[in-house]
Amino acid sequence: MARATIPPGIRCIQAFSRDNWYRGFTLVLTFLFYTSYHLSRKPISIVKSELHKNCSGAGGHGSTSRRDNDTWCDWAPFDKPNYRILFGALDNSFLIAYAIGMFFSGIFGERLPLRYYLTVGMLLSGLFTALFGFGFYWNIHSIWYYTIVQIANGLAQTTGWPAVVTCVGNWFGKGKRGFIMGIWNSHTSVGNILGSLIAGIFVSSAWGLSFIVPGAIIAAMGIVCFLFLVEYPEDIGCTPPKHFDSKEQEPVLRRGSMEEIFTNPSDVTENGSIVSPAHTEPSAISFIGALKIPGVIEFSLCLLFAKLVSYTFLFWLPLYISSVAHLNPKAAGDISTLFDVGGILGGILAGIISDYVGGRATTCCVMLIIAAPMLFVYNYVGKNGLATIVGMLIFCGALVNGPYALITTAVAADLGTHRCLKGNAKALSTVTAIIDGTGSIGAALGPLLAGLLSDWNSVFYMLIASDILACLLLSRLVYKEVRGCCGYPTRLRGFKEF
After folding, report:
1. Given phi > 0 = left and psi -120 to 50 = alpha, else beta, which region is 358?
2. Which of 58, 59, 72, 414 gives 66 a disulfide partner, CB atoms 3.0 to 4.6 angstroms apart?
3. What are the pLDDT digits (tens) for 458-483?
4. Alpha helices in 285-423 (DSSP H)
5. Cβ atoms of residues 410 and 182 within 8 Å
6. Can you tell me whether residue 104 is helix, strand or coil?
7. C-alpha Rg value of the chain to the nearest Å
8. Helices (DSSP H) in 238-295: which residue ranges?
9. What are phi and psi of 135, to 5 degrees?
10. DSSP secondary structure string, 155-182?
């Protein structure tokens, strides 16, 4: 009797090695973790238009004795004329705390087990997100309560980005890193979309649940992290990736590898015996040492302005759509997710192009150059009908978030495993924190300035100027990449090559 052939599904499973299965599993896990981080940040932008809205004919939590004015249904203290300044204060309470905490988070991330670090961070983020929502049920109207909760949440959320980028960097090598991380980085936009949709379900009936439900989700993901995350491939017997181009760079030596032992003379004792691999783990890089890695400063400053644009949209887009298109909070929140859909496409496209042309800085610069005039166009035609709104949101989302996504993922991973480190891959968390921390300064400035500016036209001019500055900051690296593609020496005066 002839033996049956192996089913196609089993053949597909067998085509993937044990290493590939664990790499895929880690990629999915970290994707879900950071999706939950962004999911818990989004509700504030959706709830703003509920905390202060046009109360004509509205029902809800306001007292009937106050219905003789247009703010009776607003949630104090956001029922005052300075509500935009208060919203800006809430945004910046979170973002400034996040920016400051990020510089320290990378240092902790290099020195603590990432599984524990992420678990505690997600549990705390869930707690503080939920506490903001409990203000609805506890009938809290003090701006200080919401500000303190936002500060605490901003600090807690700094645990996420350096840790997940480091985990992915530990598992994936340099080949096609832009494409892989471009797809993986869609967690930012997926989290924003899910956060908008979940918050939109409850915003008009009980806005407190718009925070409590996302808080519960990220806390649950913290438990999943504790149960399943593996930081290093070597910890479970998998093969570590190569973080270098064999034609250009020295091998990056992973902790405990035989190559690492034999290429470090200090690891060999006087009688010729070799020390245990446990004692050969490279030390974490210093903050100043990370700044000296070529390209870290340029990309960090570029991200400052790129993230300023992205986070201004993150925190103010639903309110802008509600104001200019005269839509209710839920509809405005739902439509704003199209900007994040464009962000997914832009991140993937930026990764593919940068892998193909071999120029991260050039890819970012081109997208930023196109983004500036498109923002100008969006401000003037983006409210002329639903089809125009949809098209402009997707296109602008791709151009704005593409460079942001590329810098915070593939660029950070490239710099954190730069050949000048001579095999010490423990710089990844610190480099990621420096880049994202600097970017977070811009993320704090954007929403603050948007709250202080008098009209939406001024906001868009600010965003356009920021895109142009971000592009100019990469000009030296773009020049270097272009010269390299043309076969010229890539070393620039004042730019130290390792």
Report:
1. left
2. 72
3. 889 999 999 999 999 988 888 888 87
4. 287-291, 296-325, 329-357, 360-381, 386-406, 412-416
5. yes
6. helix
7. 24
8. 258-262, 287-291
9. -60, -30
10. HHHTTHHHHHHHHHHHH--STTHHHHHH
d(CA 362, CA 475): 8
Q: How far is CA 308 from CA 124, 226, 321, 337, 375, in A?
A: 26, 33, 19, 18, 14
| SS3 assignment, position 268 | strand
pLDDT digits (tens, 9 = 90+) for 2-51: 566 777 766 666 666 778 888 889 999 999 999 999 999 889 888 887 88
With both helix axes pointing from N to C terminus, report the angle between 83-111 and 296-325 in degrees, rounded to the nearest 10. 150
The whole-chain average pLDDT of the chain stands at 78
Q: Find the angle CA(121)-CA(417)-CA(106) to the nearest 5 degrees.
A: 25
Question: DSSP secondary-structure letter at 70?
Answer: T
CA-angle at 80, arms to 77 and 82, nearest 5°: 100
- Spatial contact of 107 and 43, defined as CB atoms under 8 Å apart: no
Here the tokens at position 252 are: 């990056």
What domains can be seen in the chain, in order of their start residue? 22-52+78-256+283-485 (1.20.1250.20)
**pLDDT of the residue at 494:** 39
- One-letter amino acid of 319: L
pLDDT of 441: 87
Helices (H), 453-487: 456-473, 475-485
pTM exceeds 0.85 = no
Q: Which of 308, 304, 329, 338 is nearest to 447 (CA)?
A: 308
Question: Residue 429 is inside which H or E element, if any?
Answer: helix 428-452
Do 33 and 160 meet the contact criterion of CB atoms below 8 Å apart?
A: yes
Rounded to an integer, what distance in angstroms lies between the CA atom of residue 219 and that of residue 230?
19
HEC string of 377-399?
HHHHHCCCCHHHHHHHHHHHHHH
On whether the CB atoms of residues 121 and 447 are closer than 8 A, the answer is no
Give the model confidence (pLDDT) of 142-201 as tens digits. Answer: 999 999 999 999 999 999 988 888 888 788 766 566 677 778 888 887 898 899 889 989
Largest CA distance in the chain: 91
Helix (H, G, I), strand (E, B) or coil at 412: helix
Reading the block at residue 56, the tokens are 């004509």
Q: How far is CA 318 from the centre of its chain?
A: 19
